[in-house]
Specification:
This protein has 224 residues and is an alpha/beta fold. It is 51% helix and 12% strand. The structure holds thymidine-5'-diphosphate. Thymidine-5'-diphosphate binds next to helix 4.
């Protein structure tokens, strides 16, 4: 079966994920790739229905496990309805947040048991793990400033409004994942200009993505 290439973007609030996804999608399309841009929570009709429940804070009073299961339910629908079919068609899938956000937000700062999180991951992601994960790294103080400037008058969402200390723990948790999974993850400093950050990302993608017809087993950030 032909399989495309699955790239996820992770990091704290205001790291510039959506801008970078747009720039990468444009450049991959210009190179002739079929590209699917998507996001979590959401990305499919079923998952978008759950998105509002999560980001409005409606599920917050019911606890971190409930939220984690809702993120997982949204992910299952998104993987089955959008990501897996796109990869089967040979597309490059660019996803704004994925399973590492659950590991960090629900697992680490939500204080949930690792076994519980692993079980959710196994039933939702299965073999659809990203080939490459770009972790956009930024000081949370700067990231939250950027996120506030972006949203203007609108209030912070359920997760943005948490304390700086929690955002710092999330930054460390993303970096810990990158250290453990060097074959999949690349950390990119997100403080530069969008064009500079895009150049670094483009290099990481070019290294990790197999050229057409190249041996499938060489795919992934660790095989560069
Ligand atoms: P959103 O406004 O989509 O995006 P972003 O912060 O990436 O610009 O917000 C999504 C929020 O949901 C964000 O605060 C991270 C959080 N989240 C989780 O807690 N767990 C998850 O599994 C995912 C995918 C997101």
């Amino acid at each position: 079966m032909p399989r495309g290439f699955f790239i996820t973007f992770e990091g704290g609030e205001g790291a510039g994920k959506s801008t970078q996804i747009r720039l990468l999608a444009d450049s991959l399309r210009a190179d002739g790739h079929a590209v699917v841009v998507t996001r979590e929570p959401g990305g499919s009709p079923g998952a978008e229905a759950v998105r509002h429940v999560l980001l409005s804070g409606a599920a917050e009073p019911f606890g971190a496990s409930m939220e984690a299961i809702l993120f997982a339910a949204a992910r299952l629908d998104h993987v089955e309805q959008v990501i897996r079919p796109a990869l089967a068609r040979g597309a490059v899938v660019l996803c704004d947040r994925f399973v590492d956000s659950s590991r960090v937000y629900q697992g680490v700062t939500g204080g949930l048991d690792r076994k519980f999180m692993t079980a959710l991951e196994q039933v939702t992601v299965k073999d659809a793990m990203p080939d490459l994960t770009i972790i956009l790294d930024i000081d949370p103080e700067e990231g939250l400033r950027r996120a506030a400037a972006r949203r203007g008058e609108a209030g912070a969402d359920r997760f943005e409004k948490e304390t700086l200390q929690i955002h710092r723990r999330r930054r460390k948790a993303f970096l810990d994942i990158a250290r453990k999974e060097t074959g999949r993850c690349v950390v990119v400093d997100a403080t530069g200009s969008p064009a500079d950050v895009a150049r670094v990302i483009a290099r990481a993608v070019a290294k990790a993505m197999p050229a057409d017809g190249q041996d499938e087993s060489r795919r992934g950030a660790g095989h560069v």
